[in-house]
UniProtKB/TrEMBL annotation:
UniProt keyword annotations, A-Z: Acyltransferase, Lipoyl, Transferase
Provenance organism: Pseudonocardia aurantiaca
Protein name per the record: Acetoin dehydrogenase dihydrolipoyllysine-residue acetyltransferase subunit
Record flagged with keyword Transferase: yes
EC code: 2.3.1.12
PROSITE patterns: BIOTINYL_LIPOYL (PS50968), LIPOYL (PS00189)
Key word Lyase present: no
Pfam family, one: Biotin_lipoyl
Top-level enzyme category: transferase
Origin organism lineage: Bacteria, Bacillati, Actinomycetota, Actinomycetes, Pseudonocardiales
Amino acid sequence: MTDDRIQRVTMPKWGLSMKTGKIVEWFVGEGDTVAGGDDLLDIETDKIAGTLESPVEGLIRRLIAEPGEDLPVGAVLAVVAPEDVPDAEIDAVVEEAKAAIASGALEVGDEPEPQVVDVGGRTISYLTLASEEPAGDPVVLVHGYGGDKNSWLFVQQPLAETGTAIALDLPGHGASSKDVGDGSLAMFADTVKEFLNALGIERAHLVGHSLGGAVAAAVARSAPEKVASLTLLAPVGFGPDADAEYLRGFAAATSRRELKPLVGRLFADQSQVTRQLVDDLLRYKRIDGVDKALSAVLGTLLDADGHQAIDTRSLLADVDVPVTVVWGSADRILPVPDGVELEQVEAGHMLHMEAAGDVVRLIQRRR
């Protein structure tokens, strides 16, 4: 019988499309002691590169995966166990792990498919992930300007391990209808409220990024009974400064050459900007109706002078639900505001991609 003190670090599943991940670089070695949340290694997927944080604590006895290897989701990457566990037992676990990879037994099966629901005459696409016996109010994830439900790929699965996590595409984004009407904040907030009603959700923990943060705050202001808590990630409307050049440039970009340097501003770590990420955004921007939708929403985000036109701080003034505001310390799109009680993480504007572990922990704190 295998010693139950032996722990395995496995290839994570970041998003539904991920089947394998390539080992880029280890930050730890055999004989090192790690704690939960420590950076272990960088992994590159078909969509984006990310850092795997340790899900366990203890002594690293073996590193199985080598830099450059492309391994399936679920493959054992490292073995953690106390020093008094015999080497023979560790070696047996390693051989078992290698055999599982070689046999093809780790191939990813069928995954949950995104669904659609009619909300106010618009088709809204969403993805639900849940644990076997989800408890408590669900977490609903609301993306930012130009984003979609896939931007939560590093966050949604971990949240779903202990409950239900739902990511939706706002109107004008992702696979949802491209009609945004006047593109107003009220339209987006009404859509989210009606979305919750359509799915029979009485109350939810709302997590909003950037524009999605203002949308979540507007929902909490107008329908506080629907909101268990708010977690706002670099929300718009907390200061007068914004990278108007980025917002206008993103709305107008029609080529990879124009788009790639703009996308680079979203991240502190430029290695996150993969060709696939830029290609996916460019493909979205070429869908009929997207240019009109982005232009309409741009008028909601910025005034004629390029200042933020949404005042999210005022929206929250009378909101009586638990609120957590989180910001990336290296955010170039919406710099960290003054005079706001907030949590900072080491990341750029896309903090839920660059510092996913920290973001998940802060969301879990409210559940």
